[in-house]
Amino acid sequence: MSSITQHTVVDSPYGPLTLVATDGVLSGLYMADQRHRPAEESFGVPDPEPFPEVIEQLDAYFAGELREFTVPVRLHGTPFQRGVWEQLQRIPYGETRSYGQLADRLGKSGASRAVGLANGKNPVGIIVPCHRVIGSTGSLTGYGGGLDRKQRLLAFESGVPAVAALF
């Protein structure tokens, strides 16, 4: 039995977002020009039907009314990647963790580079908050959507609109 893949594109304060569903469950959220963005052909047919709840939650998030997403996601990746992505979902809104802290939580002390690689391949950006991961010194390091977007998302979540407006 084959899977049904559908997609739609929605506007956001961070540019257009491509939402992808596999068998009706969100399996991708990609920004324009995102690193590791799959080929457009893999997004399936254009169809907004599977996405009303996702769009509603994204709108509430961008309006500052939602801090934790509850929309179901289907994350395709290796067991290690899925473990990293599960840890990302445990980082509270407005907080950050380092790659090393995530590696420690996975029981893989010293695997911060592997955590970084898995973080960069997160297929459901924003909802699975890979933007909340920073370097051990507090520096902003790599983000598939670009460091400017990462900086803006972190500023937005920290409640510093003046800073967010600068970027």
From TrEMBL:
| Reaction catalysis annotation | a 4-O-methyl-thymidine in DNA + L-cysteinyl-[protein] = a thymidine in DNA + S-methyl-L-cysteinyl-[protein]; a 6-O-methyl-2'-deoxyguanosine in DNA + L-cysteinyl-[protein] = S-methyl-L-cysteinyl-[protein] + a 2'-deoxyguanosine in DNA
Q: Which Gene3D superfamilies match?
A: Methylated DNA-protein cysteine methyltransferase domain, Winged helix-like DNA-binding domain superfamily/Winged helix DNA-binding domain
Pfam families to which the protein is assigned, alphabetical: DNA_binding_1 (PF01035), Methyltransf_1N (PF02870)
Name any one GO molecular function: methylated-DNA-[protein]-cysteine S-methyltransferase activity
Q: Which domain of life is it from?
A: Bacteria
One annotated Gene Ontology cellular component of this protein: cytoplasm
Protein EC: 2.1.1.63
Q: Which UniProt keywords apply?
A: Cytoplasm, DNA damage, DNA repair, Methyltransferase, Transferase
Where would I find the Methylguanine DNA methyltransferase ribonuclease-like domain in this sequence?
A: 8-75
Protein name, per record = Methylated-DNA--protein-cysteine methyltransferase
Originating species: Streptomyces candidus
